[in-house]
Amino acid sequence: MSVPTYLLVDGENIDATLGMSVLGRRPEPEERPRWDRVLAYCDELSSAGTAEGEGNEARALFFLNATSGHMPMSFIQALLAMDYRPVPLAGSGSNDEKVVDIGIQRTLEALAERVEAGQDAHVLLGSHDGDYIPHIERLLQAGATVGILCFREFLNAQLAALEGEGLTVYDLESDVKAFTIPLPRVCIIPLEDFDPLAFL
Question: Which of 6, 25, 92, 183 has its CB surrounded by the most CB atoms within 10 Å?
């Protein structure tokens, strides 16, 4: 029996990190992640290690802050067309309330409860945010397979430290291939991967 895979996307966090940390400005449409590629990558991970025809497609949840009462309908329609399930959440309107974070935290808690009850799960989270650390730790301790999709150099350091506990980190650009154009990133290059011709 194959293990269900869940992809939870913190769209606000990915977009803010891309804009503020990677580009230093608002991303142009061609600079944004191709969410269909992200889901296809997660589907590949879901199928890895299973017999042909047994792999499940990832269940993809894309969390959105809809506290303003407005939903970006064209984006939501695009997500639906790519087999994502949009989760537009509305909070109280307080500036301190992290609506998307709370929604994802509750979902991670629900998944952890399932795993603790004996169900297997492969959980993939698209975010850089340290607010999810206790939830990721709980999932790992319960025996879930957990991965983070992010820009590795901007991942919360405490979250990155969970690699020693079994967390797998997937880089959105180099591993997932979520972008159609190269991003202006300066990343640490493992010596075995260094290609001097790329710099000449």
Answer: 6
Structural domain harbouring 27: 5-199
- pTM assigned to the model: 0.91
Tokens of residue 83, six digits = 């087999």
CATH number of the domain where residue 106 is located: 3.40.50.1010
Contacts of 3 (CB under 8 A, 6+ apart): 46, 56, 120, 121, 122, 145
168-171: strand order across its sheet: 84-89, 59-65, 5-10, 122-126, 145-150, 168-171
Burial profile 105-114: b = 16 or more Cβ within 10 angstroms, e = fewer:
bebbeebbeb
Tokens 């430290």 found at: 161
Does residue 47 contact residue 55 with C-beta atoms inside 8 Å? yes
- The CA distance from 97 to 95, in Å, is 6
> Can you tell me the mean pLDDT for 57-82?
93
What's residue 49's pLDDT? 58
**CB neighbour list of residue 113: distance below 8 Å, 6 or more residues apart:** none
pLDDT in tens, 169-180: 999 999 999 999
Structure tokens at 91: 């909070």
Distance CA 142, CA 152 (A): 25
Q: Give the count of domains, the chain.
A: 1
